[in-house]
Amino acid sequence: MPELVSATGVMEPPAIPQRKRRGHWQAVRRRLSRSPLFYLSATLLVVMVGMAAVPALFATADPHDCDLGRTLADAGAGQWLGRDLQGCDVFSRSVYGARASLGIGIAVSLVTGLLGGAVGAAAGYFGGWVDATLSRITEIFLAIPLLLGASVLLTLFGTSGSGTWTVIIALSVHGWPQVARITRSSVLEAKQQDYMLAAAAIGCSRLRALARHVVPNSLGPWLVVVTTNLGVFITYESIISMLGIGLRPPTISWGQMIHDAQARFLEAPLPLLGPAVFLSVTVLAFILLGDVVRDALDPRSHS
């Protein structure tokens, strides 16, 4: 057993948890490197992120260069998915729409992950009245369906308020409770482990124990839910834009394109199917990545 007293006479936490934690993450990396689904989902996401970051590399046509004389034109040379109701190139707009849709999904996932993680960690670790208060607040937000709550907020903001940041705020306000509940459960389990008893025995402060032992050993479930939520929030953004209460022109998003094309779908299906395919591939890639990460963190969950 390692010594708990250093050469300077200062009490130190045992090193075993840190070594076990490093070994755990090394095993996770090995499992990921052996998974074909990891490489498939990662490749798809790299392509989609590349589209969002540098769309001009994937589409040469200007998405705002529209010709009403070519409304609903069929696919042909230079326009792989034809043109929409405004005479705009569907493929080009689908590529450029990745920036708004992916950007909102990533931003909401980060905000809800950090907020929900902080609330869940505080509730699970400190317990008592802190846990009771934060759990009741979480349950109140959980009682409101995310899509309904976000739609109400966006409707209250009105047409002038449906910008990118407004959509991010509306989805974030109702999207963090699930992360909080999962993080709380993970922290409750982590703080019952032997290394927490050892840390308490040597006089380690509660905040230091939380930062050094509980949080690192609770990251697995948090990481899985945040990764999976990326696809979920991209879907929600597309739904609210498709309903006409999300992003509006001149911003281009997949949901907005689907909203504009649905009325003429039977006459011209490509303006709707184009962004729908981009959306489906992106969401599928995030879901696959979340499943692969979950299985790598806990191989027993696959059985």
TrEMBL record:
Keywords: Cell membrane, Membrane, Transmembrane, Transmembrane helix, Transport. The keyword Ubl conjugation does not apply. It is a multi-pass membrane protein. PROSITE patterns: ABC_TM1. Residues 98-290 form the ABC transmembrane type-1 domain. It is found in: Cell membrane. The keyword Transmembrane applies. Pfam families: BPD_transp_1 (PF00528). The chain crosses the membrane at residues 37-58, 102-128, 140-158, 221-247, 268-289. Belongs to the binding-protein-dependent transport system permease family. This is ABC transporter permease. It comes from Microtetraspora glauca.
